[in-house]
Specification:
The complex is a heterodimer of chains A (about 700) and B (about 45). Chain A has about 700 residues and is of the alpha/beta class. Helices cover about 60% and strands about 10% of the residues of chain A. Classes of the chains: A alpha/beta (about 700), B mainly beta (about 45).
Amino acid sequence: MEKETLTSSKAYTIGLFGNPNCGKSTLFNLLTGLRQKVGNFPGVTVDKKIGQLSLDSNEVVRLVDFPGTYSFYPNSQDERIAVQTLINREAEDYPDAIIYVADVTHLEKHLLLFTQLYDLGLPSILVLNMADQAEKDGLKIDVAKLKKELRTPVYLLSARTGDGIEKLKDGIAQLLQEGTTTSQQFRKLSITEQAISDGIRKQFPALDEYSALLYAHHYNWLPFLSIEEKASIEDIVEKYKFESLKLQVNETMERFNRFTPITQSALVSTQVERTSRSLWLDNVLTHRVLGPIIFLGLMLLVFQAIFAWASYPMDWIEAIFGQLATGVKGVLPEGWLSDLITDGILAGLGGIVVFVPQIAILFFLISILEEVGYMARAAFMFDRVMQFFGLNGRSMVALISSSACAIPAVMSTRNIGNWRERLITIMVTPLISCSARIPVYTVLIGFVVPVGTIGIFNQQGLAFMGLYLLGIVAALFSAWVFKKILKTDEKSFLMLELPAYRLPVMRNVWLNVWEKVKTFLLEAGKVIIIISIALWGLATYGPSKAMQNAELTATEQAIQQDLSEAETADLVASKKLEASFAGHLGKFIEPVIQPLGFDWKMGIALITSFAAREVFVGTMATIYSIGSEDDESSVRDKMATERHADTGELVYSMPTAMSLLIFYVFAMMCMSTLAVVKRETKSWKWPIIQFVFMTAMAYLSSWVVFQSLT
Amino acid sequence: MGILPGSQVEMIRRAPMGGGWYIKVDNKVIAMRTEEFDSIVLQA
């Protein structure tokens, strides 16, 4: 992104405020384009979007997109940010001026917050958005009248089509030059409120009247107040017998009473029934029976898209990285540097980039569904069921898409407003069997269930389905357990506006896809590449003497048995892996995994699977020295004939294979997912907890399975 | 969110698996849980 010119003393900060669904983000994207970045509001996990706005005057303006807010009396973490920033001049994002966005087709509801902002006295502009929709509805707007009554510059525009945007830019430039703070009040404080406000202003002389009143309403949770300050405000509040809730209701009603006549006289509606089309669609889309069926159908399409369509670009990416590796091997002399670049760095990079198609496709489809207005309906339909498990209606999307890949699924939880519900969703999502487990299941399932049919069903197919169901049950059960454990003081509630259905703004969709892909590559990519290099080191290096010995014995053995060149190379690779640190680690953990029926070879596979579960197959191929032909069936054939050296029993007996399968269903063996969870929860605490609980679950289940089958 | 004394409220339907309410307030459509729905006082 651009250099940080934003903090230089010349730069202005403008805050973008508005109710949810007012089209604020569309306007933000239109004004800033790609010159935006995502940060955090201090102390909370709410995303903050900051963008650069260039005006004709060459001034650079820093535009901060605040979360959608209904009023200064917040109901959620997101909503608190507006008020807590605006009544604290020291706040990092305290704006020099305000752009307030209102949906002109719902102006009678959207002006509440505007009048509250107005009473803080900051220079502001009122943007009446959705002019195109208003025109369609036959809504006539008297801009001049609003301007006069509200004593604020007013701009009518459409962020969807871009009509009127240039005038707004001129308006912003003018505001920055001429805009001054005012002490005019939209609403005068009542006598009680005035007394409290004056009392608080004795302690905080720099505050304006309305801010002081808001201190009295919110001092309990305002993060910037010290304990002493809170105590002194509490004294004042008690002295005046301050009834916060009653005053909030009175204030809100008075504001509505004042601006309702203004909107009624400035807007002339010739409309018939605006929402009728959406209501008709909802008769079908949120129908008791049809609604869930249509949703599952749509999700099937999404699933199909990530699963099947993404496989083509994924194959290309793998092929390109394969070519690159061969190229490097050709140019560089054989040695550790060439190995590091090809097997460590390039393999790691390839492992990251290969997820991009899935992420891009998932977010492309989800953004469209979100833009159209469907996601709010889906959340509404499934909220109750998900509530039971401590999840949210929106968790459905994450759970379903994680059957393709947990990484985009974890990233898709961002729009779950309640932190606890979002966290639980993130924690249990990787338990759903993802596509990387399929090769492992394919290889192992034959050792457990013989080929054949039960009725019309293929036995192995049924076993496959069983493994998937096991993952789903485990996810829901763990969610329920987390719900019992995690306590929160944040009240969970759901009150969603169901906006009228409309065509998606493709600019918003592309920007969302771009942002998700970028975040994944930069944030999660860093962690993945480090772990990938470490894994490479473990599998390539070992105590030097042991490694040399391994190579020597393998070569001697090959000569004795008169092996071909390829077979010799496979044998050497196998012996070297055994002598490497990974091999030692495998042997080291053997006593721990023995009760599960695993030997050290499987131990190595468990460790290398951490790079990605499907690596299991490749590792098995190397261990059984058939590395040059690592397709699933040859690996399977080799494993099927493997016998214990001492007892002569088959290594992949039914109990062992079953136990290994169960282990792969539950275990957290994916560094990429952990890296994404770290990025989304902003600490290492949650990925570590996730790793521990999933591995514990895997270990215990495998133990029970193996012990009861033998 | 703009449900005020005097607003016209119309119940449209319930969520497929219960729990949710789909209502129309003036010309806006809003979804909510039963707990929130209960706090609306209706007057014919």
